[in-house]
């Protein structure tokens, strides 16, 4: 659905609540070990398109998890240090990102009806409504 | 979501606060996944120990740290019971040779306190990433949890057992409440192959299989189930543990069919997704060569540290390393660690392999690895691994050179103190 100002993608609300922030779009999965620096929230995976960017206060649009089964623990340790995405958009849920969503506890929409990677770009202002299951995008 | 009477009683607190917290987490997780019910877990393999990531919690009280990081509960809820057969994964400390890792006595004692709490809760302190080599063998259709990524691939693929790559919090919670969401690999329909990888070369050595796993993972999209086909006759447990460790490094599969070898893949038709293949990929000698080029620093040079045994070595791999080192000496400026599980070391002790490695100047280590401990000798400028997983993950953590090669290359480097000269 598209109007003059915003685009709405529907999915399944997984963690309730509403949050907005700039999009950080990761079509490439992020690895567990050596994927995210827990002290800064920066992606440290060598060669990752988002290497050097931080997950702090962004709407993280992420294709999925890979690598260590301890994937969620890195998000968990970062959250304890006060570093977390403000919301999660997971186009297709999997076990690694599913646990991370519970651990982060931020509004989360999963299993989207449209491909968000065709719509959302880095820096777009995105509002995630994890109660109704909608993702609203205002282009940067 | 459908919950049984027993599960409702647990959520109501009738089975104690720990089981209540654990099941609350699992129900939240099931809701995120979209699962409609839970299934009973009979085995749990758990990342026990005073791992570095726990330091995010500033509390000194061990129970507060465990409550937050293992059970996602800000309320202190002591870990005092498990609801199924449980054994421990790697910890950050070798409890026998901790000083040789560079651990302080305080770090050793702290880790022991965490492990002691796990033991009292009912977790067997095996301390290994290869639970399937130490008595943790779920059968076809059995539901289990594990905190080790390659162990999921091994036990799901080779025996048809059922687990997802859930993560540490979910694994601890499942161990306590003996439940996990009935979703993903726990459901037969989700276990069908989506991507066919045809091998145009014949992987033979452990290194070949390691590189194969790495190369497949680089080409495998998320949410996929790979099928390996052609030239797979050389697969065995040692080769597959390396293959799957590498595959679960560069990608996230929870099951890998091997045509004609794994039980759910007697034929392509039997293991194929009803919607058909999403992609076909050929993997040959060139792809393996490219994987090695990614993993191994291309400049020859001195080596300070050599680490073998990721995943933990089997007894025959230890035997081979000991044979290689028989009558030889490690370079005085180089440290050699060979990692395995405690029960396997007991056999190595009995057979004399441990002494042979020690006589050469190396150490047979247990219960950890450089990646889990985030430790290598102070001042290391170059290190060598016979594991794609270790080389891949440690590169971003160090400014030291990282070399990757087969066990013989690594042992030669340990003896000469040099790589590639």
Number of helices of chain B: 16
Give the overall silhouette of chain B.
globular
CATH architecture of chain A: 3-Layer(bba) Sandwich
- How many domains of chain A? The number is 1
CATH architecture of the largest domain in chain B: 2-Layer Sandwich
Q: Please give the radius of gyration of chain B in angstroms.
A: 22 Å
Looking at the structure, the CATH topology of chain A is Glucose Oxidase, domain 1
Query: What is the terminal separation of chain A in angstroms?
Result: 18 Å
How would you classify the helix and strand content of chain A by structural class? alpha/beta
- DSSP summary, beta strand count of chain A: 10
Q: How does the major sheet of chain B shape up?
A: 5 strands, parallel
Helix content of chain B: 25-40%
Q: Let me know the largest β-sheet of chain A.
A: 8 strands, mixed
Strand tally of chain B is 17
Kindly report the CATH topology of the largest domain in chain B: Aconitase, domain 3
End-to-end distance of chain B = 62 Å
The level-1 CATH class of chain A: Alpha Beta
* Tally of domains of chain B: 3
Q: Give the class of chain B from helix and strand content and strand pairing.
A: alpha/beta
Fraction of helical residues of chain A: 10-25%
